[in-house]
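ping. complex inputs:
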Amino acid sequence: MTHWCRSLRAFAIILLASLSVSASAQDETIVVASTTSTQDSGLFGYLLPIVKEKTGVEVKVLAQGTGQALDTARRGDADVVLVHARSAEEKFLAEGFGVKRYPVMYNDFILVGPKDDPAGIKGRDVAAALQAIRTKAAPFISRGDRSGTHIAELALWKDAGVDIAKDRGPWYKEIGQGMGAALNTASASNAYVLSDRGTWLAFKNRGDLTILVEGDKRLFNQYGVMLVSPAKHPTVKKEAGQRFIDWLISSEGQKAIADYKIEGQQLFYPNANDPNA
Amino acid sequence: MNDFVQALGTAATLIGHLDAELREVVVLSLGVSLSAAAIAFAIGVPFGTALVIYRIPGKGALIVTANALLGLPPVVVGLAVYLLLSRSGPLGALGILFTPTAMIVAQTILGIPIVIALVHRMMVDLWATYGDVLLVDGASRLRAAGSVLNIGRERLITAFLAAFGRAIAEVGAIIIVGGNIRGYTRTMTTAIALETSKGELSLALALGIILIILSMTVSALSYSFGRFLTGR
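pong. complex structure:
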């Protein structure tokens, strides 16, 4: 081995050491497994500096989609989950992985599609709109990734009387990716897609897409937050995690969520006080 | 075409302003990928050399494996490292999942087969030419290998750069084991993936242009270093 091989190795060791030092320097740090919508909409980018200032907790966010976020927490790799699929959250609690679920905020889903609207769904209720897409076999992009939005989409098809597992054809494309990727795909192929409003408002590559169906009460989208059970995973940072949750549902945290706007439009509506949410 | 022009403009603006977040992302990308390439190099060079200078049982199988692993999909490495480092996994107690250290581990695994395969190839050629001569002159096997590696040092740089190139360009492994956490494990490639998903296509492309500039800088520096070493 010549001397410069050795110096390269020394360089590597120094780099590695400096990286691990910077990792252990922050102690009040928690990992929150959340959904792509909270990141792609810019909510966390806006909220986390405020959280740090008010509670001293530094939050590291994993943007994964509800199904994957809950799995990450089940493995003990996150301290808190903030997701949006009530049925999946309740299953998580029932399995003993979560301590308690707190409602945090809501927004709504919207059906987005090309401006010329080949299936003629504009302004209809969501069930009629999905039936029309099915009848016309108009292109539709599905998340297909067990995310909160995907779970909601499947429930909406069922509610519309369409058995999507049986009735799907080439018009129905499951892309298995996040909300942003689904919107990009829909934009590039002039397809219909179900989106949460937050991601849509922050999304820049809309092309010919526009909102066609909104305001139906079946399109309600509730977010909940849970501390991962320290009984299941002793490494969970329960004190800092609970402090983060307590702040989110405090009047101060709720106001901060309501204050997040893009081009004057509010993206999320706080409702921690609603016991049924 | 408009997108590309816009991306070039955005890239120029980003470089001009050099804002703190971009600087952090660039430093992390370079730090993680250079570390991974250096560690892969430190492991791969002795391994690839030993395959040539010693009689090792199952040598053929090892060489075939190293070459096959050149096509190792980063996402598979990411998943395997994730399962190992997860709190529920065998190495969970280390608590390094979703840290830059985990990203270095994944990229090192991706780099090792490249270094082994390239160093092995080089040593096969050079050992045939110089190895036996040096041994006849009375040098020990290790000393002879050292001399031969020194003769092939420019090709060793190529091996290092290949490992670095694989590391700096991949997104599949580090997005799983690093988690793309803002200000902590967000690199150039995971930032590009994120901006694409936000529909900020020209910003994503601009970051891609900056990544290419970085790669070219590292490559140019290594090239000059090689020329310096050989005195040309």
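Residues 64 and 241 of chain A are 19 Å apart (CA to CA).
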